[in-house]
Amino acid sequence: MHNDSTTHSALIAWIPLLPLLGFLVNGLWYALFQTKRGSKKASSAVTGVIATLAIGGAFAVSVMLFLTLKAMPEEQRALQQNLFTWMRVGTLQVDMAFTLDTLSTLFTLVITGVGTLIHIYSIGYMSHDATPGKFFAYLNLFCFAMLMLVLGSSLPILFLGWEGVGLCSYLLIGYWYTDMDKASAGKKAFIVNRIGDLGFLLGMFMIYTVFNTLDFSGIQAGMPAAVSNPGALTLIALLLFVGCMGKSAQIPLFVWLPDAMAGPTPVSALIHAATMVTSGIYMIARLNFIYSASPSALHVVAVVGALTAFFAATIAVVQTDIKKILAYSTVSQLGYMFLGCGVGAYSAGVFHVITHAFFKALLFLGAGSVIHGMHEEQNILKMGGLKSKMPVTFAVFGIGWLAICGIPPFSGFFSKDEILWQAYASAHGSPLLYGLAALTAAMTAFYMTRLFSLTFLGKPRFAEQPSYSNVHAIAKHGIDDHGHGDHGSESKKGVHESPAVMTGPLIALAILSAVGGLIGIPHASWLDEWLKPVIHTGHVLREGVAPTTEWVLMGVSVTLAAVAIAFAMGLYRDLKRAESLALKHPALHKLLVNKWYVDELYEALFVKPIYALSVGLWNGFDIAVIDRVVNGFGRVSLWTGQAARMAQTGSIQMYAFMILAGLVASVGYLIYGLV
Amino acid sequence: MPDSWIVLSLCSVIFFIGLFGVLVRRNVLILMMCIELMLNAVNLTFVAYARQLGDLSGQMAVFFIITVAAAEAAVGLGLVVALYRTLRTVDTDDIRLLRG
Amino acid sequence: MAWFESHWLSTITFLPAAWAFAGLVIPGTSKGAIKNWTLAGSIVTFLVSLKLYGAFDAAGAEFQLLENAEWIPSLAITYRLGIDGISLWLILLTTFLTPMVILASFNSIESRVKEYYFLLLALETGMLGAFVATDIFLFYVFWEMMLIPMYFLIGIWGGKDRIYAATKFFLYTMVGSLLMLVAIFYLAYQHKLQFGVFSTSIVDLYNLQLASGGFWSVQSLLFLAFALAFAIKVPLFPLHTWLPDAHVQAPTAGSVILAGVLLKMGGYGFIRFAFPLFPQAVTYYQVPFMILGTIAIIYGAWVAMVQPDVKKLVAYSSVSHMGYVILGLFSMNAIGATGSVYQMLNHGVSTGGLFLLVGMIYDRRHTRDISQFGGLAKTMPLFAISLMIMTLSSVALPGTNGFIGEFLILLGAWQAVPGLTVIAALGVVFGAVYMLWLVQRMMFGPITRKENEELTDMSWREIAVMLPLIVAVFAMGIYPQFFFNKMEPSVNRFLARSMPTAMAKARPPTTVAVTEH
After folding, report:
1. Which residue range is the domain that position C438 belongs to?
2. Complex-level ipTM
């Protein structure tokens, strides 16, 4: 249970509750009044404003509570709220309770803040959609679930949010469900997430076995006794990490994230860049004491993170769909975050979560702006020269680009560098991990520059043929899906900048991406101080590492990034030259373009065999064996009847004889003891 | 009075002839006659024992049996006639309506 | 009125049957009147049953609202009724589902309407009777009595192979119960040997001392006799094959009642009879049954995945879900047992809901072949929402009732046999696979068949049928403690009786003396 020194607050519940109310309002309005055939659909403005007010209100409460926490002394920086008892069975007690401490407050601010911006953006982006009420309802529901995840004071509440965001992800990825591929992508996301959730569940059970409680405070209190069982702690850490692999798209469960780009771009920005995928890092940061007690688990986390970062970057280098590049970039950056946590630098991982939320949301929304302006074109090979046509988007996207490449003084530089330094210097780190991470950083700079260059710089590689792009748009998405058919009049204007409702949030995110790094300046990190009550590890250096190496490595990473940028700029000035490079290594290129054939591998190893096995079980066992036995009973009784029938000859004399025989037998038995 | 075993063996022989006939003969009328044979054999047995034991109730039984036999013969022959009218046969092998 | 006060259970049990008999005077041609009369009766029963919630005191005696009357004195069989925290909720589930089932049948049944609704109410009486009986023979009577209306419901108003399915269902279940009958009489006889009088009252029989140890011991054989009957009903792998046929061929109402209540009889039977009467046997058979439960979970899910018929898919999903119930029960701890009981309630709501939805689509398209659907969310958005909610409950999304049940069961099973739990937990993945794939094939994608373009969305009647279930899904998921409060003492008593040490403390008979035999 919670100790008495924590402060109670009645406001915490409003943070998730406001988006939930927004969901109910928009959802019920949609379900009750907008589903009949021919009924008028609500506009994206009204529904969007409702949703934005909800999430904006949650942001206001978050800020208020953040300031409250800031005013409290450091040792007591936590607020509790217990709504009611969810389950109480035997020794298990799970309350619907929230804890707002320094860690969860950061996440809450990011979720509600970036969420509000994305909601505003969506008002513009979904203005032509057929069912904006449904969209905003889902968005609000997602925010509710995500907030439950970070505010829960016990693992089951966290898990409620965990699966809830999985559900919303499913609903939003498959939002344009009349396209079977998009619906399939949603289903894939849910199921791959579920595989991770399986590990999470088992980890929860293990925790209950060892600690006899599922509350975070209870688990922490039980640590001194539990460290005598390191094997159990390692198993717990690894099982929970399986959950992270699914939710945060690490190897081997990352395959859903690129497919998730089938959803509308605000969804990709909110869910698959800024919030849901960071749940795994939140969970590890929350349970950092378990991971710190198990160095082998930490090592697994770090290695998986580093490998994922590298692996995803290799794929991103050759992709041509703007969203897919950003998707693989997200997978890669998530790998960085896990690398940070895996070397014991949990606050570095959280730092990168925050900065990544800013610049990745910015990049995705910017991509959305590009796609919107290009009338649903997503292939960067068909773009180019948008610098002049979409200046605001160009500017903000540029800031995001610089941030992700790790160019100082943008936010990405500070957070990424902290991780690189810790990967090298931490007691759990190693030069090998650093090397892989640095190589990936260079590749990141390369492919992001490639993206930026091909999209915005140079000459336009598309012809502004209004009718062609219009037909293309209709063929791809259908007329009534999100009404882009009526873009006919607009497309004659050609490629255009997005409206203010979309560029406003972009600018806000750009500012955040630019200055967001200031919270984590090395050796003056406000973030590290702030997170001290929750994250207990100090920064112990590995043996033989001098502190001054930090500045050296910083210089190395900036140089690498600059070189990669320059190389990419030069290479992609002339697209033909770049393409010839690909032709020189056709096998490698094919492998990377096809994402290392991972999807095909899973299909062959798991999907098809299990399906075949199920068909076999049904036909070959259920029908052929079990039902045969059951029907066999029927056949046996019929057969017995047929056999007994043979005694009924209908011949009177036979019957008479049987009477006689029976009489003789019974009299004989009675008198002489014969049978 | 000769030894009772001679009379009793005569009776049992007659009875078994009748029984055998009931079980084996195919003509229903012959069947009826064999049944009468069995009944009469029983009559003879009763009389023999009545004589041997000096108990007249054996002879009383004979009267009952004769009466019942007569009634049964009448009913039975009526059945045979009805049977013939329906099935056009008096061969027991062809009467298989009770076959299950 | 005072008679009612002291005879609530009899009232609730026989009210549906009495109402049905009263309704026989309505001429068979006024179908509307019959339907309304039946619906009114089921709603009245539900309202009356709500009184049970208030009348049951969780802190009170083991069985409450007792009734006791002479029945067959020479065999010491009495008419005893009583409920505890577990049967309370099962009764409420039954009376909750029946009005919806009746309402759902309004537009589907056109021939022999009077007989149909009469049988539905008679079935309700049978089910309620089985839940309230505390005399084991009375329980058996009601147990068998349920089969008759169900047989007719499937056999007359069912699908193409209805006779085969109805006969299979009836014979399969009855054969299982026959051994149970023998065991019942043996128990009564044992009671006479140990305590001097015959008795079939369950409270008396709980005090029996039976020899245990090994497969051929008395306890083991008796347990297997009972377990056979209940395992067929659950249905537990490999005795489950009657279920797909029965469900597919039954009319919608039949399927819903079958899945919603009848399957729970099996679980209830384990809880009330098989476990407390034979504690050592339970320990002896714990692992085999847990293995069977695990197999049922995975096997049911896999076979469900490949079904072309949507009703069969849901039927196999029932096999999978009930596997969880068995897994939880045999874990022999409070968490698993509570989860099991809760899962029984959940399954009634969610699978009942799924069958109702399948019935709605069948009413429109007269096919259950999944390939005939596709893109229905476009024309039937409310239906899509309802299907989505029921799917989420079925895959145990936190926030829905299904999560509570599965979470507690898996946690309880983990405490008993962790290895099996790892395999059983795979069920959460496969459950999502087959349900989401079903939703996708039915609801998403473009509309490929012309017949699907003109379908009407849910009518007000259909919304009224689904709405209580949807509310229940979330209410049970968000505030399960409401249900646990009444259940907890009963579950604890159940566990106390089912632990092997319980046999060591036998008590003298506690009931009133039955007439001497």
Report:
1. 285-517
2. 0.91
